[in-house]
Amino acid sequence: MSPTVLHVTPYMAAEAGGPPVVVDRLARRARAHGYTAQVLTTASYTSDGGAALAQRMPAMALLPSQRAALTGIGRQSVVRAVDSADIVHLHTLWSPLVATAARAARRRGVPYILAMHGMLDPWSMEQKGLRKRIYWTLVERQVAEGATRLVYTTRLERERATGRLGHQAASAILPLGADAPPAPPLELAAEFFAGHPGLAGRPLLLFLGRLHPKKRPEALIAALPSLRAAHAQATAVFVGTGPSEAGLRAQAAAAGLGILDPQRNQTKHGSDAAVAFLGHLEGRTKWQALAAATLFALPSRQENFAIAVAEALRCGVPCLLTPEVAIADQVIAAGAGRPLDPADPVSSLAAQSAALLDCPAERAKAAAAATALAERAFTWPSCARATYALYDEILARNP
Hints:
This protein has 399 residues and is α/β, with parallel strands linked by helices. The protein contains 16 helices and 15 strands. β2, α2 and β3 form a beta-alpha-beta unit.
């Protein structure tokens, strides 16, 4: 009988970002590595109470909320899920669901690993800092110290977390991956421009991800006036939703930058589209936007990996990244992108974008390097092989 791995994540909705993607891709590959995968999660970020999630992933235990894991039937569901597993893979911190599952695993002697997804990075710890420090002392330290392995996606993430842990915990570095595009990038780009003719023929600076202050999407809009002085049709394209969207729209309007209505390909607040908000895209439509991009920009304050960057690389799109994006050093070293100054992301974004737009040969060289790097270093099959090998190692020591 194959061993069972239980993935515990507080959310599985695509809008929630990276952890749901990681769980989905690892669970899909369980059988190929001799495992059965189950998922324990909640209906957070869904609008249908998680009905679509349950249909998509039948091997899922779904709670209505994280608080439901703390008492009564919800707590019993967590215990049953842990009891059915040979190993538990916990995803993220600051989660009552994850903490409850960790406690159940410790009491029953089920080994678990903890993937923190960057949540011990200094920037993350500063957000609601007092509350997190208290919760860490009361709850999360025990979760971390009870883990058989602490899992990081990069060496930089591990280095940033070491000070908070205060002890030399056993750890593993498991880089994440990116799916292969569903069609050749040129074909996907043609499909994108067929649906958005107002963006055809323009240099597109793409931001794909949650529109959140942590990721500094506002830097793209602030860089446009300077960039457009040399490249008049340069356009910022935002794919995603989040709390910063209203502010970004107001910022663009205040700067007199036209906003493209993607439904009608009409421009608001100006005669020329300089900014486009396409909302949350999934599947082929997301890949169309990636393939159509001239450059990909992520001026983030903190990213423990950034799957969207790996996806852009798979499409051969050069990336502009702050050092706080943990794979930025690999991207820059490979010649697949340019660095952004974290102290002045706006000026450096304008300058680096202009430099690549000014030199098509250099941009083509970076595009080729991007594809090569992604295919070499960031694939889900390689991530799954390393992850399931870790499970095997742990179970061999915990028969």
